From TrEMBL:
Entry's transmembrane regions: 12-33, 67-96, 108-129, 168-186, 206-230, 267-284
Organism: Candidatus Chloroploca mongolica
Topological relation to the membrane, as annotated: Multi-pass membrane protein
Keyword annotations of the record: Cell membrane, Membrane, Transmembrane, Transmembrane helix, Transport
Name of the protein this chain belongs to: ABC transporter permease subunit
InterPro entries: MetI-like, MetI-like_sf
Annotated ABC transmembrane type-1 domain residues: 71-284
PROSITE patterns cross-referenced by the UniProt entry: ABC_TM1
Key word DNA repair present: no
Subcellular location: Cell membrane
Family: Belongs to the binding-protein-dependent transport system permease family. CysTW subfamily.
Any Pfam family matching the protein: BPD_transp_1
Entry superkingdom: Bacteria
Amino acid sequence: MRVDRPTLRRWLMLTPALLVTGVLFGVSMYYGISQSLGYLPFIGATRVSLDAYASVLGGATPAGREFWAALGFSLWVTGVSTLLSSVAALLLAVILSHRRRPAHQATLLALNANLALPHMVWAIALLLLLAQSGLIARVAAALGLIATPAEFPVLVRDQAGIGIILHYVSKEIPFLVLIVLAVLRTQGHAYAEVATTLGAGPWMRVWRVTLPLVWPGLSAGALLVFAFIFGAYEVPALLGVSYPRVLAVLALDYFLNADLNRRAEGMAISLIMTVVVLGVGILVRRIDGSER
């Protein structure tokens, strides 16, 4: 098979970056897999086994007793955040695609500004706003809406993960809106106009016309959002509770444990998280393939 010169030149230009990325990824995977199998030569543990996975999945150790609750909590937070972000982004993008150019440009600027805001900064802002000792609770108490700030509903550091979900929904909607808008720009309004002519209402147009058009881009973006949230540590650590914890927080806790034997369990949890994300990715790709 002959490769044309422009293609060969592009691959040669990409080779240094691909080489560095491949080496870093390969070393990281070797490091993670070997430690999850109990190969910890710095403490004299050189016997390879599946004991860490058995401890995590079997429920006989502290890590195992918390693992399944953490997995369920992680899937809850990640799934709800991804679903709400995707639905809201689709509806918002449809609305924005019909706005006049000046207003549209201003909206795009606001969306990009949100993307530039670090997650930790926004998480701290939500904590200061929504906590029972936060700004909104104090203002509500001052206005007489509630007797004391303590009566304000618990929205952060709560058992249901509402604060974490609010954070990710508000941060990921702009990311997905930009993806959907980019797809809608390439499609124009012809399909929607035909659907309107045939008697379709606004919701029917979104469901039957817009969603199929943007689904490849939206599903890919939603998968990226799912993977990011599922593996994120800092926001759940700040806005979450001590139990249940998300898997990322649990894994890091065991990895940094003073007892270095617990590191294998932390690495095992991390690799199980990788398998979950890969499984979700394969499922989404299969759904995409079946709908084409």
